[in-house]
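RECORD TYPE: protein structure
NAME: Major facilitator superfamily MFS_1
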Amino acid sequence: MNEVTAPASELRQNWKLLVAATLCAAMGMPTLALFSIGIFAPIFAKAFGWSFAAIMGGLALSSVLILLVGPIVGRRVDRYGSRGIGAISLAGLGIGYASFALATGSIVQYYLSWFCFALFGMGATAITFSHAISRNFSRQRGIALGITLSGSGLCAILVKLFANWAIDPLGWRMTMVAIGAVPIVVGIPLILWGFPRRSEGAVASVPESAVSAPAALPGMTRGEAFQSRAFWLIALGFTPIAFANGAPLPNMENILQAVSVGPEDVVRITSLMGGFILIGRIAGGWLIDHFWAPAVAAVLLLLASAGCMLLAQDQITHVQAMIAVAALSAAAGMEYDLLAFLIARYIGVRSYGAVYGILFGLFAIGAGGGPALLGRAFDLAGNYAIGLICCAIALAVAIVPILLLGRYPVFETVAPE
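PREDICTED:
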């Protein structure tokens, strides 16, 4: 393969995979619930008398399941590929989400729906989608991951617009059924169309000298990865990032109301979250292809920290609210593709699924637990100030282990584990 034409040919050769992975990521787990729960939370609170902490607790439950089951799914994806596992999980995810429409006021039943949504949708997460991209892209891996995982921004835009439009004419129950049908009706055909079969998958990062051995993969074994300095630095950095940047977004509607932003402005600003996430995903992917990824991460984390401090004020203007939401959304947009990119560059793709499954699980614990903790802080104090200040500090501290990763290592090409 010619070095000059390689980057363009990666995108041309794998365009079907890129389209399918992006759209499937938009309807995957936990994305679908993460960006819709904020719309239904006030309805649940009014209808059933649940606290915001209890409602957001469903995200925490799904995060625990990701931590426990994600590594198993990652190993299965390493072994069997992304296509079949992703298709089956999209079906389970859609059914699990639609089951929220059966809510009767029992919090146990509500959490059971979350359990089904997370467990059966586990193969429709970034573990699966980033695995396919990392295996088939090398020189443009960052932008490919950014485009794929920008699906969450697409979801944030479309699911909020659809739910806000559909709840009045259809009712919240039928709206949830309609949202749950999308992964089944749209997602499964997409993944079967765009994802290569196991025998067809390329490993773009393998050099020409290894073409005669298509099973060869660069990187560490599972054992080497879990004992490596890079693994623990990534874990130390992304756990506080997940808590601190994941906490405000699902609570954003209520946060903006608490700082005296008008109801109409709240809808306008939160509807733009998806756009800012898309910008963070794609621009961040381009940046980490061209600049040292930890430095790019440090800049975005500082901006997100400043956004939390803005939202911690007693009252802010419309412009300040836009700036804060833009900073937090852009940083959130880059989180998953940055995690995937750092794993591929510092640990390799040899045991990518297993390693990503564990780190994604740790990240999901933070992303799922953060909204519930921030909701609890609001329930106790009547405002989000203390919680948001803690988020700002955590984002700034997380920069240190990310920068300590150092230069990108160079891996020898070896047979898969």
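COMMENT: Residues 1-7, 202-215 have pLDDT under 50 and may be disordered.
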